[in-house]
Amino acid sequence: MFRVVLLILVALSLNAGFYEEKPKPATQNCKVICEKCGFFVSQTNDYLDEYKASYENEDDFYIVMDDWIHYLFKTEDYLKVNGIEANLYGEDIKECPTLTFGEYSLEVSKIDSYFIFILYEKGKKPYVIQDIVLSEDEINTYFNITNPKYYKERKGEYYRSE
Predict the structure, then answer these.
(1) Taking the alpha carbons of 60, 63, 69, 71 in that order, is the dihedral positive or negative?
(2) pLDDT in tens, 117-159
(3) Using one digit for the tens of pLDDT, what is the confidence trace for 1-47?
């Protein structure tokens, strides 16, 4: 379990290094405080331990976690380049099993996924990304992005799709 937590902490600190900014909270006292954003919520240690145990080979679990972190960064890049606040995190599921989004609430503790990435715009119902690998389509639909921008590389260069 320590290795999982260490892997996530290293990934978050690397992400903060790329952007020269530290991740900031998207929630406060279980209430979402951003107006238009995307953020992840950390699953419980018990959930991750059970998920890890479901793999015959422990290395396969770490490969999946590494891939998830890669796509998390890719999703955050996509959000940022399209003017949506990212590099955020939500409170731990144990501390906040239900998040409040204005007039909406979402029981994140009942989401059966090792990753939970939520899109939110004030006045809209929150949306949990179903496929972190191909999240651009879901993001475009939720935020009504018709002419999206894409990062070319992590140096911050981007281009508008044709």
Answers:
(1) negative
(2) 999 999 999 999 987 887 899 999 999 999 999 877 555 555 5
(3) 545 444 554 455 444 444 456 777 888 889 999 999 999 888 888 88
What does the block give as tokens for 33?
């405080």
DSSP reduced 3-state for 109? helix
Q: Which residues pair with 54 in a beta bridge?
A: none
Contact 115/39 with Cβ under 8 angstroms? Answer: no
Residue type at 2 in one-letter notation: F
Q: Where are the alpha helices (DSSP H) in the chain?
A: 2-19, 45-53, 58-81, 135-143
Q: Which two tokens stand for residue 6?
A: 């260490």
